[in-house]
């Protein structure tokens, strides 16, 4: 009996230790740290990059997997840098604070380059170009230009440059903020909104995919450049990413990814 009890104790201890080790491994996988940590992929360092994950077709979940233009651009850049791509989702309104807190190495999340953001992060060269566009429900004849938005209900994504536009064009109590541009666009036919201001490319893709009876109106409010963001002071990362970006443009990788998602090259001015 004593012998059996002794072996039972050893077995129980082994199981407990094994469980603790598995728990530790699971925690590490669910929250990868930034800063170029070595991964299991042949000893490559991780390139962790963030996006909202709710900005189709740039980043979104499909069959439980994170996919989209931003995800694939990050993967292509990581390959050129000899690193292991690790895309991470983070709410857009806290994506820059998350970068500053070193939760990830970079943001590849459709960040428009603005003077205000340039005080908070370092930007690479642009990785695509688009514009801020007004969208309304098909059949709406009251909104034809930005001047018609005064007093109208406008939907925008939280903490975006589109929110800045909405504040200029209507009363602040008429603005509804969303986690996703697509959710805002889907609200147009319901009558909850009169207009949505979002990225031109996102809205046109939404229309093309039959997302609803929505049309774009007027000229774009602005022509914007989107760039990859890294922490202030990390000029080395900027240079490394810019070099990789140049390489994927020159070898046709960028063209292939852009054509897949948009049917055109969105780095080139249209």
Automatic annotation (TrEMBL):
Keywords: Signal
GO molecular function, one term: ligand-gated monoatomic ion channel activity
Major localization class: other
Residues covered by the Ionotropic glutamate receptor C-terminal domain: 46-264
GO cellular component, one term: membrane
Gene3D superfamilies (alphabetical): Periplasmic binding protein-like II (3.40.190.10)
Domain Solute-binding protein family 3/N-terminal per the UniProt entry, residue ranges: 46-265
PROSITE patterns per record: PROKAR_LIPOPROTEIN (PS51257), SBP_BACTERIAL_3 (PS01039)
Superkingdom of this protein's organism: Bacteria
InterPro entries for the chain: Iontro_rcpt_C, SBP_3_CS, Solute-binding_3/MltF_N
Signal peptide: 1-24
Record has Ion transport as a keyword: no
Location of the protein in the cell: Cell envelope
Signal recorded as keyword: yes
PANTHER family reported in the protein's UniProt record: ABC TRANSPORTER EXTRACELLULAR-BINDING PROTEIN YCKB-RELATED, MEMBRANE-BOUND LYTIC MUREIN TRANSGLYCOSYLASE F
Entry similarity comment: Belongs to the bacterial solute-binding protein 3 family.
Protein name stated in the entry: ABC transporter substrate-binding protein
Organism field: Brevibacillus fortis
